[in-house]
Input
Amino acid sequence: METSTQTYPPLAAWLHWICAVVILWAMISGFALASGALPPAVSAAIPPFNVALTTLLMPVFLLRIAYRASFRMPPPADIPPAKHRLARRAHALLYLLSSLSLASGWLMMERPVDLFGLLTLQPSLEPGAATRALAKLHFASNVLLALLLSAHISAVIQHQRRGRRLLRRMSLLTS
Ligand code: HEM
Ligand code: HEM
Output
């Protein structure tokens, strides 16, 4: 099988890291909020900030998926084919669960979304059984995404430790 030390195109790497920072922030701050452990002032500030930030991420995430479909990436050197197939499936699931968290988050909204004072978007659905079900779906999707992300980050650390320099493939600086 063709293998390579080729890096991701810079735009793909930028989109990966922008999405990673926003998703990790939304995940960690969202669960911290849900745990009830945060001071009241922080608890009040996080929801409007996160809702605006993740709404803005939606077009960026769509661009990421569309751009990803436009190029092929050879497997990293020294990865057995079965492991590479597993990684590809895990990556597809990461795209799917991230999309589900974004879509369910948007659709469960029962109040207008203020995009940092620039624009106000009205919710898509009337408050009711559907928005409540979508909130449950949002929670379930977030839990599954958190588990898969832990596996993703652990896998990258393990490969790095074994000398397979995956982070270099996702570098922002090289092409
Ligand atoms: C500290 C956090 C993270 C690190 C260190 C990391 C690292 C990496 C690296 C090195 C790759 C390239 C794998 C390869 O060589 O093929 C990769 C790919 C990928 N990462 Fe992450 N990542 C992180 C967070 C995230 C997050 C939050 C997401 C959210 C969905 C994510 C989704 C993906 C996906 C979907 C791919 C596959 C790219 C493709 O080929 O389309 N990563 N990540
Ligand atoms: C990948 C994107 C997203 C991630 C990782 C994420 C993560 C989370 C997490 C971990 C929670 C707390 C647990 C829960 O109730 O599910 C949460 C709650 C919430 N999310 Fe998201 N979310 C995302 C996208 C969105 C979007 C796009 C919206 C709306 C535009 C949204 C709106 C909300 C709201 C309103 C809450 C409840 C906060 C409160 O208690 O007031 N989320 N999110």
